Amino acid sequence: xxxxxxQCRDWLPDExxxxxxxxxxxxxxxxxxxxxxxxxxxxxxxxICGQQRYRTDAAIWSFRxxxxxxxxxxxxxRVLIEPSVQEFENKAFAELPGIEKxxxxxxxxxxxxxxxxxxxxxxxxxxxxAMGRWEDMKITLWGMFGxxx
Length: 149
Fold this sequence. Notes:
This protein is 58% helix and 12% strand. It contains four helices and three strands; from the N terminus they run βαββααα.
C-alpha cells in the first residue's frame, strides 16, 4: 500500500535534515514524495484510508488506479508510468540543494517556523503535482484500454 525510504543527514538543521521519500501503492510505479522532518501538515487526502475500498478522496487512489491499469498491459502502460516516475525523482533531486540552502538560511536567521512553512508548501505542492499527473495518466490509460486490454 505504500513504501518509504528514510534519509537522515545530521549536518543539516532538523527541519530539513531528515526526509521520508514516500510513495503510495506500488513503489516501482509511483513517485517518491519528499516529506521533510519539518513539514507541519500533509494534504488532507493523506489522512484518508483507501485500503478497504475505492475512495476518490484518498491520496492512495490517485496512484493506485493508474498503476493497476498500467499493469494490465505493462508493455503499453509502462511507457507512461516509468518516465513520469523518473521525472518526479529528477525534479526532487534537482531541487533539493536549493531547498536545503533556503532552509539553512532561514534557520540561521532564527526563522524556524518560516522554514517549516516553506517545507510544508514544497512537499504539499510536490504531492499535488504527482497526484494530478497520476490522475491524468489514469484517464489516458482508460482511453488506451477502454475497448480492451
